[in-house]
Design a protein that fits this description.
By secondary structure, this protein is α+β, with helices and mostly antiparallel strands. The protein contains nine helices and eight strands. The chain folds into two domains: about 10-170, YacF-like (Orthogonal Bundle), CATH 1.10.3900; about 175-250, YacF-like, CATH 2.60.440. It has helices at about 10-30, 35-55, 55-70, 80-100, 110, 115-125, 135-140, 145-155, 160-175; strands at about 1-5, 180-185, 190, 200-205, 215-220, 220-230, 235-240, 245-250.
Length: about 250
């Protein structure tokens, strides 16, 4: 099934954007091709841009500590797998410790590199990192793939505490709700929200062969889902048939 995540607040929206960037970085860094390594480096620059706009370090530490407290209280619960619980707690402790001992802002050594920042500045310009603009970068892209990968892993090391922290938090968030099956008549669905604790994210899952995708608008009172069909380069239009899907409301 294809899954679509929709955040309800800016905090979760930022974590999902970072998760998307890290997935692309890690994928491209494994490649041998210099074009993929270029994309990986651009992804790191995008991560720096995101975390420069919001201070995540303190927020992530607070959330990890809170989740550790919540999970600690589940010890001895007969419906909880003790081995899985212990593994998750150990992972949280290790990640929080690594994040806590990271000096200064996340990724600061990358910002301190005049060479990397010169590339970042030129990369904003369309085609701005051509060989005649930044010959040193052109030289780096011509180095053996193993050397480029080594450099990427060195630079990425300074961002991994962020990656590991948000990975744990999003995994807990996604596992916090129970999926419920629904049908969207003629491609539309609405659900009123209630309860004292507001959802922070919803997940919509549809079968792989479903010829449409969901667009969600939501607030603290209601969820509206409209399934649209994509027709080449034309503007998506509403799918006019019933759609079977799964909906999960998630909260930390």
């Amino acid at each position: 099934m294809i899954s679509y995540d929709y955040p309800f607040n800016e905090r979760i929206r930022t974590l999902l954007r970072l998760e998307h960037l890290f997935a692309s970085i890690l994928h491209c860094a494994k490649s041998q091709h210099d074009a993929d390594h270029h994309c990986a480096l651009l992804g790191m620059f995008h991560v720096l841009d995101v975390i420069d706009r919001v201070e995540l370090k303190t927020d992530l530490l607070q959330e990890l500590d809170r989740q550790k407290f919540v999970l600690d209280n589940l010890r001895g619960n007969p419906v909880i797998a003790e081995e899985v619980l212990a593994t998750t707690l150990r992972e949280i402790e290790q990640t929080a410790q690594l994040l806590r001992t990271t000096p200064g802002k996340i990724g600061q050594p990358l910002r301190d590199s005049d060479w990397l920042m010169s590339i970042k500045q030129r990369a904003i310009i369309p085609g701005g990192v051509c060989e005649f603009d930044v010959p040193s970068y052109h030289y780096w892209r011509g180095l053996p793939a193993e050397k480029r990968q080594q450099d990427l892993h060195t630079w990425l090391y300074h961002l991994m505490p962020l990656h590991d922290s948000l990975r744990i938090i999003l995994r807990i968030l996604r596992g916090s709700g129970a999926p419920t099956k629904f049908v969207a008549p003629s491609g539309t669905y609405q659900q009123m929200l209630g309860g004292a604790k507001l959802a922070q994210m919803l997940r919509v899952k549809v079968l792989d062969d479903t010829p449409c995708f969901p667009e969600v608008s939501a607030n603290k009172y209601a969820i509206n889902i409209r399934f649209n069909a994509l027709d080449g380069m034309h503007k998506p239009k509403q799918y006019e048939h019933d759609v079977n899907f799964e909906l999960t409301l998630c909260n930390l």
